[in-house]
Structure formats: structure tokens, C-alpha cells
Amino acid sequence: MATASAVVSVSLTFDASQHDRLTQPGAAQLPTPVWNGRPLVLARAAGPYQLIGCTPDIETLVPWILSFGASVGVDSPASLRRHIAAEARALALRYAAA
What is the C-alpha separation between 33 and 40, in angstroms, rounded? Predict the structure, then answer.
């Protein structure tokens, strides 16, 4: 996946099980400052959380998103969703024989 040079809007949905990780101070912070401004984390009543943010560097988000395992879904952009899906398929193949 090529990293876009323009700022891209990212929307992620997290399972309610990620409450503690998403609501602690600095929850959406990454090792490098990839967000343009501060991402918005929206809590849904008794349901999932949604994170909306903008970044010029989608590729840097990939390891952070993968660190949530199956507890996160990429809503947009479609290119990031496809990239995470490809990583998930590769992991499934690697561990299929386990």
C-alpha cells in the first residue's frame, strides 16, 4: 500500500472490550506523531467506539491497528481496509497449521 502524500481521513471501529485502552490519557497516541491534530474517539451507548482522525501517513497506522487484533475494524479509507485485510489473511495462513 502506498503512503498517500495528502492528508487522509481515517475511521476505525473498536469493540467495547477496548474501553480501557481507548479511554486512558493519550489512548490514540502513536509512537510518532502521525495524526493531524487530535483524533476524536466517540463512545457509543453499550457498543463499539469509533475513532476518527486525519493523517498524511497511513502506513504508520498499520502496526498500531494490527495491535488491536480482531477488536478493530477499518471503516475508511478503503485502501487501508484492504491492507489490513491482506495482513489478516497472511496471519491466518501462517497460523493455520497451529
Answer: 15
Q: Are 10 and 59 in contact (CB under 8 A)?
A: no
pLDDT of residue 52: 93
C-beta of residue 39 within 8 angstroms of C-beta of residue 64: no
**What CATH number labels 8-95?**
3.30.70
Beta bridge partners of 40: 52
Write down the domain spans for the chain.
8-95
Rounded Cα distance, 35 and 8, in Å: 10
pLDDT band at 19 (very low <50, low <70, confident <90, very high): confident
Q: Match 489512548 to its residue by C-alpha cell.
A: 27
Tens of pLDDT, residues 43-97: 877 779 999 999 998 998 999 999 999 999 999 999 999 999 999 999 999 999 8
List 90's β-bridge partners, or say none. Answer: none
How far is 57 from 29, CA to CA, in rounded Å? 14
